[in-house]
Amino acid sequence: MSAYAALSQAGYRAYVRDKATLFFTFAFPLLFLVVFGLIFHGKNVEQSGQPYINYIAPGVLAWGIANAAVFGIGFVLMQWRRDDLLRLIRMTPVRLPAVLASRYVLALGIGLVQAVLFVGVALLPWFGLRLASGWPLALPVLFLGITAFLAIGVIVGTYAQTPEAVAAIANCLMIPMAFLSGSFFPLDAMPDWMQTLARALPLYYLVDGTSAALTGSDGVSADVAVACGVLAGCAVVFGAIALRTFRWSDQS
Q1: What ranges make up the beta strands (E) of 84-215?
Q2: Any idea of the CA torsion for 16, 69, 150, 119, to the nearest 10 degrees?
Q3: Each residue of 212-252: pLDDT tens digit?
Q4: Helix-strand-coil percent breakdown of the chain, rounded to 5?
Q5: By three-state DSSP, how is residue 51 classified?
Q6: Is 162:78 a contact under the CB 8 Å cutoff?
Q7: Under 8 Å CB-to-CB from 229, ≥6 apart: which residues?
Q8: Distance of CA 230 to the CA centre of its chain
Q9: Tens digit of each residue's pLDDT (9 = 90 or more) over 10-56
Q10: CA–CA separation, 245 vs 239, rounded Å?
Q11: 70 burial class (0-12, 13-18, 19+ CB within 10 angstroms)?
Q12: Which 3 state secondary structure label does DSSP give 189?
């Protein structure tokens, strides 16, 4: 526990001191919200008749949180391994679960702040997001989503050996997934085969569960339950792969 507390405190201090990363982690999703808000202000989705903000806000929020989880842990593990920090940590009584748990708690805190800030902005009259009564159900969805995508980030950070490699691998995963999972526009407007493909992606369930909780009306509990179940399964599978493939150095 002392090792976990020390790593958590060190991770937090390093994060808040990196002003550029701190700023863009929270500003990047808001930038997409502003851009899409300006483009689709006052417009409704033809297929459902609902305001476009009801689709775009939960989708961008889910993508932003997943993106931060993957990139955050991916870059840190790559840098620690490249600088031999992981090898030095391994020589102490600290075990791998303490290392990953310290990053996990930090990711959860970042995700929570992201969600509060993003929803607060989306609720402004210009954007006009209206929360459904079941909005607290978004919390377990986001919690499990961060868990699943953090595990993906561990895998990325394990195999990537340079910052450029982390960015390339993570972007190749997250950008196509964002468009295919309905983060930026409704899946109803996509061809049937793309809608089927979307259901094989973990981000789809993070977006769907978040959207159902924040703006849904009918069948919210069922949609959230499905999203939580799939994300929990993804977290277990990707977590097992991450633990199995984790490397303390580039030589081991």
Answers
A1: none
A2: 110
A3: 898 875 567 788 999 999 999 999 999 999 999 888 887 65
A4: 75, 0, 25
A5: strand
A6: yes
A7: none
A8: 15
A9: 777 877 787 777 787 888 888 888 888 787 776 766 656 677 788 88
A10: 10
A11: buried
A12: helix
